[in-house]
Amino acid sequence: MIKGHKKNTQRKIVEGAIKAVLFLCAFLSVLTTVGIIGVLLFETIEFFKEVPFLDFITGTEWTPLYADKSFGVLPLITGTMLVTVIAMLVAVPLGLMSAIYLSEYATPRFRATVKPILEILAGVPTVVYGYFALLFVTPLLQIFIPSLSGFNALAPGIVMGIMILPMISSLSEDALHAVPSALREGAYALGATKFQTATRVALPAALSGIMSSIVLAVSRAIGETMIVTIAAGQMPRLTLDPTKGVETITAYIVQVSLGDTPSGTLEYNTIFAVGMTLFVFTLLLNTASHWLKTRFREEYQ
Predict the structure, then answer these.
(1) Integer Cα distance of 205 and 99 in angstroms
(2) The CATH number of domain 74-295, selected from 1.10.3720.10, 3.40.50.880, 1.10.10.10, 3.30.70.100
(3) pLDDT at 119 over 90
(4) Domain boundaries in the chain?
(5) pLDDT at position 263 over 80
(6) Cβ pair 43, 272 in contact under 8 A
(7) How confident is residue 298, by pLDDT bands cut at 50, 70 and 90?
(8) C-alpha to C-alpha distance for 125 and 121, rounded to whole angstroms
(9) C-alpha angle 48/49/54, rounded to 5°?
(10) CB within 8 A of 69, min separation 6: which ones?
């Protein structure tokens, strides 16, 4: 009896210790997030004490490191969005087609072999992707587009699409795989072909997971740093022409963080202002992902 009581006491102590460690891990995550937001917010407020917010958000010239300073962030936002759109035009069709094939057509053995190989793309360092875009994709594209600049938005956009392709493919395949077989069997019983079943039954049923994967991929593309820093250039230009060099928000942060700009100056504080802009974009996308997941979620018995 005493032995059993001692074991119960020891188990409660161990469980209490594990619970405390898990709580500390969760608390540390929240504390880190609050710290990041606090630093961004404090430095951004300092920046906007000298630069009007309206000029920052609507200005069409970004030259804070030049003698003639201008703090309009639109060129950085446009460059970021341009590269992201190109990446999504590559990743979404290829990712969805890969997911549909792996889920609806491939044999279990083929799926088990190909899916891990596809996911290796997500493990390649982004600096490798950046030099791949600069030294291989750009010269290749220049054969077909002679006017393409050495630094441009097209090559890094394509390579970034390849990089985020496994995210869309894998998450969408998981969502399609989770659709109950009864829905497919019902479609077959009504005379639907395999393609019709995949696109008109399984795809709509898995829409919640697919949309979430796409939004998460957009967030990943917006926050990508090394590919655009190496291959897109450092010319903040308000343009929608993908053959020209552009500068993204993350590339500008890298440029200023190299150490040439003195800490504490207005020029240095610009990285916090654009960082907060990037944070807001990412937060909105994550909120949209959560809303889409809740709005289009299908529950099956």
Answers:
(1) 14
(2) 1.10.3720.10
(3) no
(4) 2-49, 74-295
(5) no
(6) yes
(7) low
(8) 9
(9) 45
(10) 63, 267
